[in-house]
Design goal:
Strand content: under 5%
CATH topology of the largest domain: 434 Repressor (Amino-terminal Domain)
Region (Disordered): 52-76
Protein name: HTH cro/C1-type domain-containing protein
GO molecular function, one term: DNA binding
CATH class of the largest domain: Mainly Alpha
Number of strands: 0
Oligomer: single chain
């Protein structure tokens, strides 16, 4: 009897292993295919991350090359900088009231522009730009004509 039992157990084990082997073979093939696909996807992700990094760098370079400052750019392409206006007024030797008289504004407006608290209107901006290219003598003549 023990021989039949051991033979029967061995045969059952053999058949079970045979069935499992056919099932596991399909799973192993699917696993290998999935691993290969994962490797391809990881490579693609790293390529895309590199592309994003390069694009970000090029965009940051472009913006640093030509900064478009809303405060320094106004209508008509005329630039206004508070420090530039203050240095121009000092170069011409004018008080804030006299400078305001030349550009059609008050002395307090000139102080506010120089402090950066406000920006001049387009008409005043054109007058400020016109004062950039003239000298002290012409400024004195214009002031004498206005007073």
């Amino acid at each position: 009897m023990p021989d039949i039992v051991s033979v029967l157990k061995a045969e059952i084990t053999r058949l079970a292993r045979k069935e499992l082997k056919s099932e596991v073979t399909g799973l192993k093939k699917a696993l290998a295919a999935h691993r290969a696909e994962i490797a391809v996807l990881r490579k693609r992700v790293s390529e895309l991350e590199g592309e994003v990094k390069r694009t970000t760098k090029s965009i940051s370079r472009r913006t640093s090359e030509k900064p478009v400052d809303a405060e320094s750019q106004t209508q008509g392409g005329l630039r206004f900088r508070a420090a530039g206006m203050a240095s121009n007024r000092k170069r011409l030797g004018l008080s804030a009231a006299d400078f305001g008289l030349l550009v059609g504004a008050s002395g307090q407006s000139v102080y506010a522009w120089e402090a950066g608290k406000s920006k001049p209107h387009a008409s005043s901006l054109a007058a400020i730009a016109a004062l950039r290219g003239i000298g002290k003598r012409e400024v004195e003549e214009r002031l004498a004509a206005l007073k």
